[in-house]
Amino acid sequence: MKLRKITKRKGSEKRRYDDSCGTAHALELIGDRWALLVMRELMLGPRRFSQLRADLPGISANVLAQRLGDLERTGLLERLKLPPPASMQVYGLTRWGYEAEPITQALGRWAARSPHHDPSLRISGVSLLLSFRTLLDRERAKGLDAVVGFRFGEDVYRGHLTERGIEIAREDPGDADVVFAGSVASLGAAVHGGVPLAALVREGRLAVEGDRKLAERFTRLFPLPEKISDRQRARAEVR
């Protein structure tokens, strides 16, 4: 399915740091509040405005429209039109925009070490799936070669899992070895919250189709990084 690019006029220039450092320019590109999270929600493919708004509940429609416009002007995002019969506008990252995924992975892994990070807070489906790509423990995944599906309401994904990583696409799981169906929060609780998978299934919060043993193993493949210790924090304060 080929999407058609929509051309829009340029907007006003953003304020600059007047600093030649690459980090400063990166912040000019994605440093505004919500910008990087908007990009995060597009890392698994184009989405509609309403879908972005639903998975970023703290953002207003006006601010979301502004951020989408900003990211488009900087060349990180493009407006596309789905072919008939859908014929609707969606937003997708450019090839350069997709190159930012390692940045979001490194930032997320680093911030998860904070003692103030709370993994029980709300998480979007895309964000949870990206956490799998970020946190896969290759030793725990040794020898694996499986297709894993995810169904979060209308959103469906298919992932190919090996010890080298997990590739995920927004498409029907088809004949996946195992499929998780239910709420994003429930799968997050099983993987990052330590809630037994059997309990979630028994309570009807999550359904597992296919290889149950693989499903159990899957929930243990993505350990969160260790929190920074009091000693490490004290050393940082001395510096």
Describe the structure.
There is one protein chain. With 239 residues, the chain is of the alpha+beta class. The chain has 2 domains: 16-99, Winged helix-like DNA-binding domain superfamily/Winged helix DNA-binding domain (Arc Repressor Mutant, subunit A); 120-218, SCP2 sterol-binding domain (Nonspecific Lipid-transfer Protein, Chain A). It is built from 11 helices and 8 strands. A 5-stranded mixed beta sheet has the order 6-5-4-7-8. It has a 3-stranded antiparallel beta sheet with strand order 1-2-3. Helix 6 packs across helix 7. The longest helix has 13 residues, at 61-73. The chain is globular, with a radius of gyration of 19 Å. It starts with a strand and ends with a helix. The relative contact order is 0.11.
**H and E string:** EHHHHEEHHHEEEEHHEHH
Main β-sheet, spatial strand arrangement: 6-5-4-7-8
Beginning-to-end CA distance, first to last residue: 55 Å
Instruction: Give the full name of the CATH homologous superfamily of the largest domain.
Output: SCP2 sterol-binding domain
Strand content: 15-25%
Number of helices: 11
- Helix/strand class: alpha+beta
Number of strands: 8
Average pLDDT: 91
CATH level 1 name of the largest domain? Alpha Beta
**Which spans have pLDDT < 50 for at least 5 consecutive residues?**
none
As for the CATH topology of the largest domain, it is: Nonspecific Lipid-transfer Protein, Chain A
Global outline: globular
The profile of the biggest β sheet is: 5 strands, mixed
Tally of separate domains: 2
